[in-house]
Specification:
The chain is of the alpha/beta class and 267 residues long. It has helices at residues 91-106, 206-217, 243-253, and strands at 4-6, 31-32, 35-38, 48-54, 59-60, 75-77, 111-115, 124-129, 136-142, 177-188, 193-194, 204-205, 233-235. Helices cover 15% and strands 22% of the residues.
Length: 267
């Protein structure tokens, strides 16, 4: 029997693979002020490069930045703190799972993730939540909208505060999007983590937790309770992104090209 755990707040969701009708659901994308959120490519027709940094010191979202979900990842601790309560997982293993999460999105979309050391210049900042009220979180600051409207207190939460955006809107010109300025991913330092599925839904798998939160960091929302990795239920049913996840991210960034290109970073 497959066990299912419904998550509170934005806590990670790994959904079940179910029949897919070929298009992402209406609420599959994050938006602010009526605009879809995404990382902008450096030039039309070229892929998008997104940098990320793993925290080695305490971090706080810079004062004055307007974020979608102020309660999420506002203060963060070093990445190593994520596995403080996980005796079976080393810091290096956790970093490996993070890289695998980025690679999962790279394999299906025209995205390239590059690790850098300078946190102030990183597009995505990854660390441990300072005072977690759940297990895993993400947050975004927006560059091109002067007064972004919060999606909800818990970013991506499937509740009455979340306003979905139709998939047709993703086909707008680049100017129709709001550019993400910086994104934040943080996991609880009070939770125990694992590597791999074992049927114990009280301890979450790191790779799929990271993959889910990176999905938020590139503009994807919860499309529902289950049926995709970006759904808000944690279910140990599959070990890869679903067609729903692939379709949604490709709507924002396009499919992975068959031949590599030369890119420059967003920063």
């Amino acid at each position: 029997m497959i066990r299912v755990r419904v998550l509170a707040g934005i806590a990670v969701a790994v959904g079940a693979l179910v029949p897919f009708d070929g298009s992402p659901k209406a609420d599959a994308f994050l938006s602010s002020d009526g605009r879809l959120l995404k990382w902008r490519s450096q030039s039309r027709g070229m892929g998008t490069v997104v940098s990320y940094a793993v925290l080695t010191d305490a971090f706080r979202v810079p004062q004055g930045k307007r974020t979608l979900s102020p309660d999420n990842c506002g203060a963060m601790q070093p990445f190593a703190d994520i596995v403080k309560e996980s005796p079976d997982v080393s810091v290096e293993e956790a970093k490996h799972e993070l890289k695998a999460a980025f690679a999962a999105w790279e394999e299906i979309a025209d995205l390239t993730f590059v690790e850098i050391e300078d946190v102030s210049r990183a597009n995505i900042v990854v660390g441990a939540a300072h005072s977690p009220l759940g297990r895993a979180f993400a947050n975004l600051s927006v560059r091109s909208v002067e007064t972004p409207l919060p999606v909800s207190r818990a970013l991506g939460k499937a509740d009455s505060d979340t306003q979905g955006t139709s998939s047709e809107a993703v086909d707008r010109e680049e100017s129709g999007f709001a550019a993400i300025e910086q994104a934040y991913v943080c996991l609880s330092q009070r939770s125990r983590w694992k590597v791999g599925f074992d049927g114990n839904l009280d301890i979450y798998d790191l790779r799929y937790t990271f993959t889910h939160e990176v999905g938020h960091a590139i503009g994807l929302d919860h499309p529902g309770k289950s049926g995709s990795l970006m759904a808000y239920r944690y279910e140990e049913r599959f070990q890869q992104l679903t067609p729903s996840d692939a379709s949604a991210v490709q709507k924002l960034y396009g499919s992975r090209p068959s031949t590599p290109k030369s890119f420059t970073s967003n920063r």
